[in-house]
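*** Protein under study ***
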Amino acid sequence: MMGRALWMAVIAVVVALAVAGCGSATGVEAQKGPVADRAKAAGKRAAQEAGGRTKVPGANVVLLLMNGSEESSARLKVEITHLSKVKLGWTPSPCDGKGDAKALEMCAIGVIDQGPADFIISNGVPPKDMSRILKKAFFKKIPVINIGATVAPSGLFAASYAPDDGAQSAKLNKYMIKRLMRLPEEDRKIVVLASSTGGGSARFRQLKSDIQGTGIQIVDEAQADQAKSATDKETVTKLLEKHPDV
């Protein structure tokens, strides 16, 4: 049980470092924001429970990525793999669904069945796309931790260290709105590449809320293809060509 408590605390720290992209940071104290705050609190609790300095136990960690070729996922994979393997001596096993939930499930279930797997880190994969993985992990008593993006709540998650997608969107929206408000109202038009993921949906909801009363119009939108993230640029280009006045 002590090993499990230490793992959970260290995972919080690893996530805070990896999500922040802080390869040069000396510790979680260098980070800011809710994720880092939770990491610090978890670390302090684990230290108190452990009774002082102690060695982090080895672990076999499974990293779930819906699409590892996506820029943010690829970066997170590199950072978590480095922190786990080089800094902590853990054995990471990435599972990349390449945009296919079934492929992700096949990889993860295979790793869990083959074992050993001590915990699973899911990079913002919605519970509906990994229901069998969650159930298998629960049966095997393997904690699953969500990171990277907001997803629908699930009682099968041991913890969730995710950014506030709405707050992030609000920051970007403020900058965009400020620039668009310089234009005549009839020219305040935008197109949106939306995402059906939890984080993407939260950001889109925030956008629609923030532009209310500004005269800014969403004249068209398209859905990002989770299986082919490389096509997103082409999709946006087509939207802009369809609406040359944007």
